[in-house]
Structures are given as structure tokens and as C-alpha cells.
Amino acid sequence: MSYSGGRMLLSSQREGQVSRFNVWVTILVPLLALLFQIYVPLFFRFLNFLEMPLLVVVYLGLMRRNPVSGLLVGAAVGLAQDSWSKNPLGMFGITKTLVGYFAASIGMKLDVDNVLMRFILAFFFYVFHQAFYWVMERALLSQQSPFDLTGWLGLGVLNALVGAALFHFLDKLRVTA
Amino acid sequence: MESFLNRYRNITVLLLVIFAQLVLLAVQVKNDQNVRFIRVWTVTAVSPMARLVEGMRGSGISFVHNYITLHDADAQNRRLQAEVDRLKLENIFLTNELNTADRAKALQLFQQRTPSKTLAASVFSMGIGSSRKVVYVDRGSTSGVMREMAVVIPDGIIGKVTAVYPTQSEVLLITDPMFAAGVVSGKTHAHGTLKGTGTPLCRVDFVAFEDKVEPGDWFYTSGDDRIFPRGMPVGVVKSVRPGQPYREITLDPSGMSRGSPEDVLIVVDSVHQEIPDTPPANQQVYLAPPPPPLAPPAGTTNDAAATAADGSAAPAAHTTPGTEADKMHAQYQKAAEGAGMLLGGGPTGTTPTRPPDFTKLPVDPRTAIPGRGTAAAPVAPVPVQPAAVQPVPAPKKSTAPPVPAKGTGPADLKTTPDAVRRANQAAGGPGGLPQP
Q1: Are A141 and B29 a contacting pair at CB < 8 A?
Q2: Full residue range of the structural domain in which residue B52 is found
Q3: Taking CB atoms and an 8 Å limit, are B18 and A97 in contact across chains?
Q4: Are residues B257 and B145 in the same domain?
Q5: A19-40+48-175 architecture in CATH?
Q6: I need a surface site. Which of A40, B21, B267, B356 has the fewest CB within 10 A?
């Protein structure tokens, strides 16, 4: 369902509607995304490109339109992802904190129910997430990772496509007024 | 503050969360030197603050120490002041020593130059409780000092001895109103009488108004008073005012120009000198080094002849003697060559027929001595003047002193001043006193 009727920008903040979710949704959905990120690539390596925790953080940020809530969700999901990875705690945490904050901030300005807008935002935040993570790797871990912008853009498109579908599925978990 | 946090709540929470995760990250990650980032960041963040705090602490302590409590400043000030006082006294002492040495050197030079026989003395006391200008010197009758002896320094006359005691003497300075001495102008030879005025300046009386005396003219002792030898500098004319029948002349005594003297010379045997035409100059006279010995005359030696035959570029030999001794040597050499001999070199190669006749030498009228035939008279040695010469010029023509020296007879009065001086110096002891 659409709230905006084809427009991408909101004329006022009142025009944007805050989506509400049940508590179990806000806990379970990120947890499932993390489990997907951890276990699914073990069996299906081609799905390694998917960044499901990032897509969940972007969606929750966009829908709840609360920067503090968005950055807390991002920080929690990021730290959890760090804990299940070989990286030091905080690498994904800081990156996803910024993503959740910016997503919530942008969600107050844009019509996040628009499919194209969701695709664009998912693409943008994926590229931002990868670029910022690359910067932190070089700055804090002194790791010389390659700057693969083309790969980021291609994977960004794929994640945006998956994200648009995922967002449509998650819309069904919203609490209706 | 609360409104500030409400307004920037979102960004504040974001910064806090990111900061907390950065700290968490820094605890885990190490840098290339295997030091955790949390330690590196902490040290980097704390060091400037620690330096700032340490600087403030040091500055505060220094300020309190140097400006508030002034720790040790008073003791150090007293110590430095005492050292400054000690150095001042030492400086004064050394300066006096230097001045004494300079005065002694000047007196010694003056003693050597002046024909009069003098006795060095030191002023040890000024006249106390008296309006008279007198000083006391450390020489008395045991040193041969007598009343009415002149007291001088190289700059000029100082006074005269008015009382003699066994070991000391009283000297009346020329600034005393009771002092008088005969003086004469160096330029116009105008005679007058020097009198003290009780002030640093003196007065010259009894100079006729027709005598030309101008400020800047020098006055010398005339010897008329039979106390001061003639030719001693007295002073320079300060002012001249016309008067009838005598001029009123004010004189600045040169002997007192440096204040009361500390070392003086007592003239125990006066020798008169000529009145110099020019004022005494206080500049030292340069005395050139003696010339090198002359080369033998050309043609007198075989070497010179050989050199001339070779036509080498040897410097031109002296063909004419330079001094009287050289002239005499040339005359004797000529006489010896006539007899076929070479003075100091043996025969010239030819057999001498007879010894040379040195009684027939050509006579030089300047060196001829009456009654001595044609023999050349010996030339008197030329006295060598010291390198540093003091103001009084050398006497042109000396005359006998009016008062003969002690122990000298009338025959001595006819001798030259040099002879008198030599006799006095030969008779004097180490201190200049005549031997009994």
C-alpha cells in the first residue's frame, strides 16, 4: 500500500506517518537477518553478497523516522554482527549506527513507501556502508583492502533489489492503527 | 543546558554511541608497535593536558618563588653588595697603585733629564688648622734638605721648603699668599714676581705695562730669587688686565693643575737653564733607532775593488765619511795608503818603505785644538736622550748657578752645566744625596 500517491518528497513532517512495530518484530527480524547473514552463505555461497542486517537497519530507520531509535537499532545490530565475525567489536557497530541515524533522518524528509525511493535508499546506504567500512579498515585496522567501487555499485544494485522486496514483506509486519 | 540537550538530542546520542564504540574498538585493536589504540589515544589526549598542567604548575611555583616569597634574594643581595664593595676598594687600591707607578716613572725621567740635582719625596700630610697652604714631605735634614730649597714636579714648581725637621719638611705651596718667586715670561722675557692668592690661581706682580704679556703665555722661574733654578715652568697666563704702572696678571700654576701633588722633587742643587722660547709640550718625542754601521769606503778593500771590477749591481758605497770618526778614519787610511799599508789589513802587496806619518794629516778647522798641532781633537760623545722626553727643553747654553752647590768651589762655577750635573750625580748617593 502506498501513502504518498506517487510523490517522493513530503511537503511537511505531518505528511509522513510513523510506522509502529511490535516488540518481537523489532527483536526477531534483526536476529533473523543476522542468522541469515551467518549461516546462509555457508550453504549458498552465492548469497554472500547479501547484507541482510544492513537492509533491516535501513528499513527500521526509514519506517520509524526516529534518529535515536534508528542509531540504537544500528548499533545493536552492528555490534551483534561484530560479535559473530572475526572483526573487532565496533567496526560494523559504528558503520550501522551511522546508517540507522541517517536512514531515520532521511525517512522524515522522503516518502519511504515509494518503491523506487526504497530502491535508491537501499542502494545508497549499501554503498555508504561499504565505503565507510573500507575507511575504518584502513584507519583503525591498517588493512589495505581494495577500493572496489564497481563491485560496490553492482552489489548495491542487487542488495537494493532484494531490499525492495524485503521492505515490501516487512511492511506487512507493521502495526496498523 | 537542558534545552541544549533537547535541541541536539539526536546528534548527541549519535556521538555518544559512536564514541563508546570507538573506545570499545580501541581497546581491542593494536597499532604497528603492538600498543592498543586506547592507550595511544589516551596518551595522545592526556599528554598535552599534562604538559599544560605541568607548565602551569612550574610557572606558578616559579612565580611564587621569584616574585612572592623572593627566596634567598635578600641574602644574595647582601652577599653581592659586599662583593661589590670589596671590588670597589680593590679597584681604588689598584688605580692608586697605577697612578703612583706613573708618577714615580715621570719623576724618574724628570730627574734624569734635569741638570739640577733633586731628591724625591712624598707628601704625607697637609697643613691642618691653618689657612696657609702647606704640605709636609717625608724628607728632612737627615736627607740633606735645607730651608728655602725649591720643590718641583715635572709639570712645574710646587713650592719651597719653609721648615726642616730631621725626618720631614714643611713645604709652602705656591698658592699660599705668603709665597713669592721670581718669574719671567717665555715669549717676551718680561720679569715679574709670582705670588700666591690663597686660591688655585696665582698672581704675577711687577710686570710693567709696556711689557707685552698675553693670555696663554708661559712663565718660567727667573732664578732671581736664588731659590728656584732658572727655566723651570711655572704656569700659563690666564688673564691680563692693564694696570698702572704694572699689569694685573693671573696665572694658572702648571704644577698644581692636577691638584695637590703626592710625589715631589726637592731641588738640593740648582742648575740654571735657558728660558725656552716655546711652551712646554706634553707630547712624547719619538727617537729613531740608531743607524746601521757604515760600509767601508769604496776602493779601500779588495772586496770592494773586485765588486767594482765585476760591475755588479751592488749599492753605491759611501765615498765620503758620515761622522767625525769616519772622517778621521778616512784621513788616517789615506796616510797609511801613502806608505803602502792598509789600516787593520796588513800590507797592500807592496813593500812599505817607511811607516806612515800620521802627524801630517789635513787639519779640520772645526776639530782643531790649539796647541795640539795637526792632530785631530777627540769628538765629545753625543748624549743620547731618553725616548720619552718631558716638557722642559734641553738647555742651549747653561750658566753657572748663582748659589754654588755644597762642596763645590769657585772653579766649579766656570764649568759647563753638564760637568756640574755629572759632578753632582757622581757625588750623589742612590737617593740623589751628595756623598759627604
Answers
A1: yes
A2: 2-68
A3: yes
A4: yes
A5: Orthogonal Bundle (1.10)
A6: A40
- How far is the C-alpha of B263 from the C-alpha of A112, rounded, in Å? 119
The residue extents of the domains of chain A are 19-40+48-175
Residue-wise pLDDT for A110-141, tens only, equals: 888 889 999 999 999 999 999 999 999 888 88
Query: Among all residues of chain A, which has the CA nearest to that of B9?
Result: A68
Q: Among B285, B305, B322, identify where a domain stops.
A: B285
The beta-carbon neighbor of B10 closest among A67, A90, A94 is A67
Domain count of the fold of chain B: 3
Residue of A102, A124, A35, A53 whose CA lies nearest to B18: A102
Note the pLDDT tens digit of each residue in B289-310: 667 766 655 554 444 444 444 4
Q: Which of B10, B14, B24 minimises the CB distance to A90?
A: B24
How many inter-chain contacts (A to B, CB under 8 Å) are there?
50
Chain A residue with the nearest C-alpha to that of B32: A142
Contacts of A141 in chain B (CB under 8 A): 29
Among B285, B312, B327, residue at a domain's last position: B285
The contacts of residue A59 (CB under 8 Å, 6+ apart) are A163, A166, A167, A170
State if pTM tops 0.80. Answer: no
Our CA-based measurement puts residue A98 at a distance from the nearest CA of chain B, in whole angstroms, of 8
**Can you tell me whether residue B207 is helix, strand or coil?**
coil
Q: Say if B77 falls within a structural domain.
A: no
pLDDT in tens, A5-49: 455 666 555 555 677 888 888 899 999 999 998 888 888 888 888
ipTM of the complex, rounded to two decimals: 0.81
Cell of B343: 789600516
Tell whether B100 is covered by a domain. no
Say if residues B192 and B183 touch (Cβ distance below 8 Å).
yes
Contact residues, chain B, for A135 at CB < 8 Å: none
Q: Which residues of B are less than 8 Å from A79 in CB distance?
A: 21
CATH code for the domain in which residue B233 is found: 2.40.10.340
Shared domain check, B325 and B256: no
Residues of A in contact with B10 (CB under 8 A): 67-68, 71, 101, 105
Whether B213 and B293 share a structural domain: no
Rounded to the nearest integer, the mean pLDDT of chain B is: 75
| Other CB atoms within 10 A of residue B107 CB | 21
Q: In chain A, which residue's Cα lies nearest the Cα of B12?
A: A68
- In whole angstroms, give the CA distance from residue A60 to residue A74: 9
